Amino acid sequence: MLTLERTPFMSDVSPKVVSTNADTQLPVMSIEAGFQAARTAWQRLIDFSLIEWGRDPDRFTDEGVEAPDGQIIALAIAVAERYRDQGYAAPDSVVPDPNGGIVFERRENGSSEVIHVWDDGHVEYMRFEGTRLVARETLLV
Amino acid sequence: MDDGTEPIADDELLYRRIPTSVPWYSASTGLSPQAFAPHAKNDTTGLSVTRAKYKSIRAAAKGRPAKSYHVAILRAGDLRQRGIQVMPHPLPEDPGYAELPDLNAGRLKRSNGSAYSLRNCVSV
Prior knowledge:
Chain A has helices spanning 31-55, 70-85, and strands spanning 93-96, 102-108, 111-117, 123-129, 132-138. By secondary structure, chain A is α+β, with helices and mostly antiparallel strands. Chain A has one domain (31-138). Chain A is globular. Chain B has a 6-stranded antiparallel sheet. Chain B has a two-stranded antiparallel ribbon with strand order 2-3. In chain B, a hairpin with a 3-residue loop joins strand 2 (25-26) and strand 3.
């Protein structure tokens, strides 16, 4: 069973708040709206990328590219659902790596955060400041 | 007459073929570092690139039949500034073949930093 050792991914958790309707006219996104937007973005990645890849696993097979298999896609979906449900900001992209793994990436203000689901089922979090790797840890036990 | 063994000058351009079937490049998100991640079997001695002085960009874009490709353009000096070596590795059928030995399969799980540094010195 998938167990995540820690959950540092993707910046701050957007807290759930009770809506008062007091600020609904403000031209800024409310915190709750931010939470919902992040949830929707995660779900979009699951529905339109990961599940689609699972339906056609050979779509990426090309020279120097191994497509992720069903097990890795299922693991990536489990990871995405975990962070979606915890309210973390969604990644900007999800892409396969060349060796059958899957990579979630989020960029903000010159830094990047990555969750890499390797082809062997190992899951890692990495954070880059510019192009410098400043944090790296295993997310699976 | 050069035969591909001569050192790669800092101002030389290099091509890297990127399959369009894999979502490693889009106008909205730019180029993914995964386009420069080494393949476990194909890149045992380094990531493959093509020297522009030996091949047109159109020829560099030719891969498998019925497949299409983007071509990333890199400058050798930009790579070296980021600590990534570029070495000529001419083949009988491809004198312009070269490799980035710092990005090899043996360093697969340690080379992401290098792949990330490539993002800022490439045009597609």
